[in-house]
Amino acid sequence: MRLHVITTGGTIDKVYFDAKSEYAVGSPQIEEILRDANVTLEVTVESVLRKDSLEMNEADRALVRERVAAAPCDRVLVTHGTDTMVETAVALLGMPGKTIVLTGSMQPARFRNTDAVFNIGTAIGAIQCLPPGVYLAMNGRVFDPRRVRKNRARQAFEEVD
Questions:
Q1: Where are the alpha helices (DSSP H) in the chain?
Q2: For the chain, how many structural domains are there in total?
Q3: Domain of 30: which CATH number?
Q4: Which of 7, 23, 72, 120 is the most exposed place for a label (fewest CB within 10 A)?
Q5: In the chain, what percentage of residues exceed pLDDT 70?
Q6: Nearest to residue 98, comparing CAs of 132, 131, 126, 72?
Q7: 42-76 confidence digits (pLDDT tens)
Q8: pTM of the shown model
C-alpha cells in the first residue's frame, strides 16, 4: 500500500526555544516518527506549509486541496495544527477516489510526552481501512469533519450533532 503524507506545520512540528520561551514551527517530524515506528508502507512526504494552523487562510487551504488532488496515490495523510484542522478537512470534502485523514497533536512531537506518535499511528491504521472520504484521527478516535470540534478546555476532539 502506498501512502502520501502532506505536512502543513502545526504543533506537531513545533520547536520550543527555551531561552526565549516561545515556539515556532520547525521541520516536519513525520519521517522520523514513521522510521522509529518501523512503518513498512511505501510512504512519500511532501512539505506544503510550515504554519501554525491559526495563521492558515483560505488560500492555504486551497493549496492543501490542490496538493492532495495531485498526490500520487489514493491514500493521503495530512499533518495539521489542531486549531483549524476541522476547517481544512471540510475544505477537502468532495474529492472522489481519495481517502484523506488529517491528524496532529496537542504537544510537539519533539516532546517526551506527546500524543503525536499515537495520533499518527491511529491515522495510519484508519487510512488503510476507511473508504474514500475525509476524516480526522485524534485522541484514539476517527471523526467525520462535519460532526467534530476541538474542545480546548479538555484538549480533545469531540463529536457534535
A1: 30-36, 58-69, 85-91, 116-129
A2: 1
A3: 3.40.50.1170
A4: 72
A5: 97
A6: 132
A7: 999 999 999 999 999 999 999 999 999 999 999 99
A8: 0.94
